[in-house]
Every structure is written in structure tokens, then in C-alpha cells.
Amino acid sequence: MKEIAVQLCTCTWIEILTGIGITAYIVLVIQDIGLAAITAGLFSPLIGFHFAVSKTSGKNDFVYIHKLKFKNPSVGRD
After folding, report:
1. Distances in whole angstroms, Cα of residue 27 to Cα of each of 37, 64, 74
2. Contacts of the segment 6-13: beta carbons below 8 A, 24+ positions apart
3. Interval 17-55: pLDDT, tens
4. Which positions ≥6 away from 71 have C-beta within 8 Å?
5. Closest listed residue to residue 59, CA positions, set 15, 7, 2
6. Where in the chain are the domains?
7. I need a surface site. Which of 12, 29, 55, 62 has the fewest CB within 10 A?
């Protein structure tokens, strides 16, 4: 859980959630699809840039769910 919490606090995830929130607000409250498309278009390059930098920097900043260990209650029972 700590890895997921750290991942959600990184700059890229904050930008993604901000972009989704602003776009959803424009669509649901203001009801302007054109402005929402412009907003999504403005956030897309910024988010794409951060993902590209993360991939090329060689750092593994992404959290993979398969790394989490869950205790299976059925294992070890006879």
C-alpha cells in the first residue's frame, strides 16, 4: 500500500487527476464539450511528457499491482 500511496503523490498522477477533474467539471457543470476538449488537449502533452521522461530516465516509477503480496486463505489447507 505504501508504494501505491507514493505513486499517487507523484507529479504525473496529480496532473492526471487534475486534468480529469477539470474536464469533468467543465462537462458536467458548465456543459461545454468544446471547452472540455480544449482542456483535455492542453493536459495531454504535459502528461505524455512526464510519462516519456519516466520511461527514458530508466527509473521504475510505476507501481505494478502484481508486486503486491496477498495472503491466500486457501493455501496450506488440507
Report:
1. 9, 31, 46
2. 6/63, 7/61, 7/62, 7/63, 10/61, 11/50, 12/47, 12/50, 12/51, 12/54, 12/61
3. 899 999 999 999 999 999 999 999 999 998 888 777 767
4. none
5. 7
6. 2-67
7. 29
Q: Which amino acid is at 69?
A: K
Nearest-angstrom CA–CA distance, 19 and 27 = 12
CA separation for the pair 59, 50 (Å, rounded): 12
* Residue 69 DSSP one-character state: -
Q: Torsions phi, psi of 39, nearest 5? A: -60, -45
The Cα 22–Cα 50 span in angstroms is 19
For 52-78, the pLDDT digits (tens) are 776 776 655 554 555 555 454 555 554
